[in-house]
Amino acid sequence: MRYTLKDYQFVAANDICRALRRAGRDYDEDRNELWSIALSAPTGAGKTVIAAAVIETLFDGNDRFAADPEARVLWVTDDPALNVQTMRNMTQASTTLGPSRLVTIDSAFDQETFDANRVYFLNIQKLARTNPLTRGNTESRTYSLWQTIARTIETVGSHFYIVIDEAHRGMRAESDRPTIVSRIINGQEGINPPAPIVWGISATPERFNQAIARWASRSNNKMVPVPIEDVRASGLLKDKVILDNPRRGQVDGDTTLIRAGVEQTLEFERAWAAYAAEQGEPAVKPALVLQVPNRPSDAEMSEYLDAIFSEWSGLRDSNVVNTFGEHTALTIGGRVIPYMAPHEVQDDQSIRVVLCKDAISTGWDCPRAEVLVSLRRAEEYTYIAQMIGRMVRTPLARRIATNETLNDVHCYLPRFNRAQVDAITTRFREGSNDEPPVELVADPVILERSADVPATVYDLLGSLPTYVVPGRIYRSQVSRLFTMATLLAGDNIVEDAVSQARIHMNGVLRAQRQRLEADGSFQSGMARLRQLKIERSYVLLAADSLDDLPESTDYEVSRDDNNVDDLFRVAKRKLPEGVAINYWNELVRDQPDDDFDAAEAKAATAVLALHPDVIEAVESAADQLVRTWLRTHQRSINRLPDARKLAYEPVRRETRQPEMTELVVPTSRTVPDRDQRWPKHVLSASDGTFPSTHRGWEQKVLDKELADPELVGWYRNPTGGTAALRLPYRGERFDRSMYPDFIFFHRVSESSIRPSIIDPHGYHLTDAVVKLRGLADYAAEHGSHYDRIEAVAEIDDRLMSLDLLSSDIRDRVAAVAEDGVKTLYTEHGGNYD
């Protein structure tokens, strides 16, 4: 892949590959074992990137899955424009899925079967009964498209994969007449057999799954969900959608809102220019999207354009395009506004304003579109949700850690159904899986670093120890090592890092071979690998056969070099990134010229690669070298521009255990306004206060700390992101993350300010013990950075605190039972009040 997959994308791609392999085995054993697989991922999760990774693996293999030379894919949608966009996105994401492998089915298509290692893009209109592609054995064509589908299934069976993109749109409830999609999936008597393996892709897969459930013949169903919280953490999506609308009961102010949209776009432009100058990279050119009614009059369009051009100094006609369905230029009030296909807008940096009707709500993808003014009336919940969802992708495919207002998108929606928008806002905040996983803010407040907080506080906050916590580990640590080596070399931090990694891996394999030779297991492994055991059985065909004939005998034959090559291919998957080949090269170089045996060197490599203890030793050594490099070169990595620095984050997350990283204190942030406003926060509104709602224990903690005259500032720790103080704790199976609620900064002497962690900690929750232990372990490791680290709980209307800087308290936390946290507070806690 040309892109480095996000963690959740990597996990989903592996899960789908595994499901496809299992589906193929089941179908090969029994032609009635039909499978469906559904990828469920929120809008903006990168479903096309996941699909490209899966198809790359099918065609070319990787360190976990062997290539399938017979694999072929039929990609089905109901929209030709969506196919064009998907092909474009796959070409950008993949290193091997180029134009020769991505084929659009057009009117000239005429093949008996689909070719191997190709993806064929089909919009279902080509299978309508009136389309010539559905008729074969004519003067103009030999095979109908239905015949191509049928003969491909009959010829390659489990190696033919049918993908239904935007599956929710092609799976409507059927009446008496089956849909085209259902005929592809279920087959038609005498025309095409059922598809062996169907893969549906959707943000809302319920309709696909319901349709599959109606078809009793397809009983093997696998759901591959992408967790919404993982997409939130990825940086691919904006953090917030800011909704700006006139208050109820006011007269429409279309041109006023258009002017406001222009000013917001120019504000984004100024912010992006400042960020680009700071980082030394090209600036993002944000675009304004103006969505108009289906039939605007020339007079209305003239008003809209006048508002845009009068507010935007220097804007030219060539900077504005329309994406209307008429596909023609507009001539309005002496201006000529050209047509541009929606999928072309993103890459043309000169386009600054886009006029559209429905294009933005039906699959359009333009991350530069950061401001939307919609003058359409919209009543339907789904339409509104899809439209908002199209605006949430980040221009740089990463979160901006310093200026967090660049993680916002602004929408002006004066004619949308207010109740439906409110309902969507609620669902977005709840994290419903069929919605874009972003926060909607209807009453935004811009926060900046507070002038009332000493500058020392920001330095202290940024220096606090925080962690990257690994999730489910799928990728090989060897692959992780060589990714790290390539990054260090590319950034001129360790110029020979790749060579160092190869030398290190060869040294590990040499040591492992010596260990296995010492106990004889290497020699026995070579003997087993070089010899193929044969079992000969005897079948008595005549009654007078010899009575003493044995039932079977065993003997051995030497494997030929082709079989050794097969095992060496397995070794290259077990020892990826060229490690197996590099070790084999060393063995060949070390052989005398008159005793050269390439096959013997391959066999020796395979013996090591097939030994689980050797693989574990290689993985552990790779992990250790990465950890050493991260510690040694952390300062150099931190000095890199954001784009380069961010490239190291996946390497950190793929660790086997939590890794230290840096906390980035933002300079600005957009938050919703709240009734409660608090002083002395490190980020504040123009009046010096921080809007944040707190109840119960949290409010009591804030009241107490803010009453301390020595308090000079505080920080409400966010949940997730580079601006969060993140602590690891041990979950049931994996390390997990916790985020203490508050960090307070007190003046402890005339020349010293010290931070404190105060975490209101529910003792009644199921994870109370493991989180408390995580906080205690952090205190043991990093307590010297803090004045206090306290867990606080309310017991019988009193706030009690555990002093986790005390080794005695930490020992008691380590020994406490799951149901003993409350007792721990009452017997060993101090009176926080």
Kindly describe this structure.
This protein has 833 residues and is of the alpha/beta class. The chain has four domains: 7-227, Rossmann fold (3-Layer(aba) Sandwich), CATH 3.40.50; 235-442, Rossmann fold (3-Layer(aba) Sandwich), CATH 3.40.50; 455-468 and 659-831, no CATH class; 477-653, no CATH class. The protein contains 26 helices and 33 strands. The chain has a seven-stranded parallel beta sheet, sandwiched between helices. A seven-stranded parallel beta sheet has the order 10-13-9-14-15-8-16. A hairpin with a 2-residue loop joins strand 29 and strand 30 (752-760). Helix 1 packs across helix 2 and helix 8 (254-279) packs parallel to helix 9. The longest helix has 26 residues, at 254-279. The chain is globular. The model has no long low-confidence stretch (mean pLDDT 87). Pfam families: ResIII. Keywords: ATP-binding, Helicase, Hydrolase, Nucleotide-binding. Residues 28-223 form the Helicase ATP-binding domain.
